[in-house]
Design a protein that fits this description.
Elements: E1 3-4, H1 5-12, E2 15-17, E3 23-24, E4 26-27, E5 37-40, E6 57-61, E7 73-77, H2 80-95, E8 100-101, E9 106-107, E10 112-113, E11 118-119, E12 124-125, E13 130-131, E14 136-137, E15 142-143, E16 148-149, E17 154-155, E18 160-161, E19 166-167, E20 172-173, E21 178-181, E22 186-188, E23 194-196, E24 202-205, E25 210-211, E26 216-218, E27 224-227, E28 232-233, E29 238-239, E30 244-245, E31 250-251, E32 256-257, E33 262-263, E34 268-269, E35 274-275, E36 280-281, E37 286-287, E38 292-293, E39 302-304, E40 309-310, H3 311-322, H4 324-338
Parallel strand pairs: 4-5, 5-6, 6-7, 8-11, 9-12, 10-13, 11-14, 12-15, 13-16, 14-17, 15-18, 16-19, 17-20, 18-21, 19-24, 20-25, 21-26, 24-27, 25-28, 26-29, 27-30, 28-31, 29-32, 30-33, 31-34, 32-35, 33-36, 34-37, 35-38, 37-39
Antiparallel strand pairs: 1-3, 2-7, 22-23, 39-40
Amino acid sequence: MKFTAQQIAGILEGDIVGNPEAEVSKLSKIEEGTAGSLTFLANPKYTSHIYTTKATVTIVNKTFIPENEIDTTLIKVEDAYKAFSKLLEYYNEVKNNKTGIESPIFISDSAIYGENIYLGAFAYIGENVTIGDNVKIFPNSYIGDNVKIGSDSVIFSGAKIYSETIIGNNCVINSGAIIGADGFGFAPNEKGEYKKVPQIGNVILEDFVDVGAATTIDRATLGSTVIRRGVKLDNQIQIAHNVEIGKNTVIAAQTGIAGSTKIGENCQIGGQVGIVGHITIGDNVKIQAQSGIGRNVRDNEVLQGSPALPYSDYNKSYVHFKNLPKIVKNINDLEKNKWE
C-alpha cells in the first residue's frame, strides 16, 4: 500500500513542510530510514538523525524547527508519538480489512453471524454460536458451541475459543490463545489418586479486552472467570478458574494467577509474577516483575520481591542483600579480633 504525504497529513490533521506528493509504502525507525519509508521524531535524543535519515516522510512535533538542511518531507502535528501510533492503528485496520467467507470451512446450521464478517479458511464455527457485525475470525480458529462474540472483535489464526465463552465488542484474541479450557481441578480419593472435578462454568471477556498470543484463560468450576472491560493481557499468561480481573488492568508476559483470585481495577502487573489463589488484590496496585504474591493486597500498594514486600522496603533491603558478604566478613573479623 502506498500513501502520499498529503493523504497522511489528512489522516493526522497535520501540516506539510516539503513535497505533498512524496509517496511512502513502509515504516521505519528514523535512524534506519530508507527511500519510500515513513518515520517519526518524538524523542529529542534522536534529533540528530533527522538530518541524515533517508526516510521520505517524517512526522514531527509542530514545535520542531530544523537547524540544518533536511531532505525528508515533514508532517507537523501536535504530538508526533501519538500521531504515529494513530497511523499504525489505521495501517493495521487497512491491512487486516478482510471480509467474506473463505473455504473450506465449517459453520453449524444453528450459528448466527452479522454483517461484514470475515471467516478464514479451515475455521470451525460450532452449534448455536452468535457472531456480531464486523468480526474477523482468521484461518484455523476454533469457535466452540454456544460461544458469543461481540461486534468488531478479532480472533487471529489458531486461537481456540471453548464452548459457552462470551466475548464482548472490540476484543482482540491473538494467535494460539486458548479461552475456556478446563480449570485445574482435581480431588484426591482415599487411595491418593486424583479425580477430575468437572469444570462447568465459562469465561466472560467484556468489551475492549486484548488477549496475547499463547495466553490461556480457564473456565470456571462454577460461575464465570471474568475479564473486565479494557483489560490488556500480554503473551503466555495463565489465568486459572474463577479468577476475576478488574477494568483497565494490564498484565505482562508469563504471569500466572491461581484460581479464585480477584484483581482490582487499573492495576499494573509485571512479567513473571506469581499470584496464589483465593486472595484479593485491590485497585491501582503495581507489582514489579518476578514478584510472588501470597497475601491480600490493599489499594494503591506497590510491591516487589518474593514473597513481595512494599517497593520502598524492598529497595532498602536490597542494599543489604548486595552487601551481605561484606557484612559477614566484618562480623567474622570482629569476632576474631575479640578473642585475640
